[in-house]
Amino acid sequence: MSGPQAVSALRSWPRAIGRGFSEWKTVGVLFSVNLLVAALMVAPAIRPLVEHFGHAPLAVGKPLLSYQLLLRLPSVFRNGGGPSLLMPLLLLGVLQLLLVGGVVWRTWTVDPFRLGEFLGESGRLFGRNVRLFFWSVLLLLLLAAVVGGTAALLHLLHRDSLFTVGTDAWIFGRPFTVWSVGHLAFTLLCLGLWRLSLEAARVLVFRDDLRQTRRAAWRGFRLALRSPVSLALFVLLGVTATTAVFLIARVRASLPEGRTELAVLAFLVGQVAVWVRLAFQISGVSFAAQLVQRAAPAGSVVPEVAPSETGAEPAEGEQPAEAPTTAAAAAVEAERPQGPTSEGVLPEL
Question: Which sign does the torsion angle of CA 305, 306, 307, 308 carry?
């Protein structure tokens, strides 16, 4: 990666965060889906809890999450009615794959948010995003094998990683050594490589209207692998998001308990953590969109929707008549180095 491209990658990092938090309507849609799934998870437990506690003085004077109340919950759900986990989580995964097409559209366009168009793009790309996800799982398994293999190799060389360090070292010793921290950094890079490849492939599927998801997954992987600065910044973006959510969760844990008002406040602080996580999720897609835009050949034109109503892809070498104004293009075009360059251009398979 050349110097101007590295500078452009550095500038895309704060732009991606700003884009994620400015797309409050998109975050609101994702947040509503999370609330719906959470409601489905706890709905079966509401009636047994009300019948057991109700207005009886069983909980008077006790904190909302006190040990006295939590230890009584198994007896409450002895006859069934406990919170449901498996089916709502599966539903959440399906809805996330459904809505990711609309999220990619929002990070690629500068048009105002329209719920109908958001849902339309989500439905149009749903099947391709599902197939792309399964291709990305293969990459994730491969990278997990690489991480596990390096951990086993370090163990054979008597250089433990965080995955092989003994329990005594965690309690009495020093689990964070040079080797363990280095292997942790390598693990984060592998995880970031997988996620950036997936997000870049999703953007490529939308931008080029690709129907061969295997090809999109391969191009996304090569694009992420050939951009080490962008990969490092993407990992930093993930670490920043995790730290922000952790700090909000720490504030939530430090709130006093014992009154209904404090319980509502704690619930609201928890929802702020979910909102921040979803905003950073959109930031990651926006960062990948800018990476794809920087890697496009100079003067290339990208379609916003399918090139024809019949769904057929254009012939090789054919260009659409018009290029839409996109957020990624607007953010990157001003910083594109002048003159021809071949760096960052992905070869066709």
Answer: negative
Report which residue type is found at 154.
L
In the block, residue with structure tokens 């293969």: 138
Query: What span, in angstroms and rounded, lies between the C-alpha atoms of 342 and 293?
Result: 14
Q: How many helices (H) and strands (E) does the chain have?
A: 13, 0
Per-residue pLDDT band for 17 (boundaries 50, 70, 90) equals: very high
pLDDT for 58 equals 54
Cα–Cα dist 15/315, whole Å = 35
Q: 248, 253, 247: which is closest to 64 by C-alpha?
A: 253
Residue spans of the domains in the chain: they are 3-49+84-296+324-333
Q: Helices 126-156 and 86-108: crossing angle, nearest 10°? A: 110
Q: Which contacts qualify for 311-315: CB closer than 8 Å, 24 or more apart?
A: 311/211, 313/209, 313/210, 313/211
Both tokens of 26, joined, read 């998109």
- pTM over cut 0.90: no
pLDDT at 304 over 60: no
Residue-wise pLDDT tens digits, 68-102: 556 666 666 766 666 677 888 888 889 999 999 99
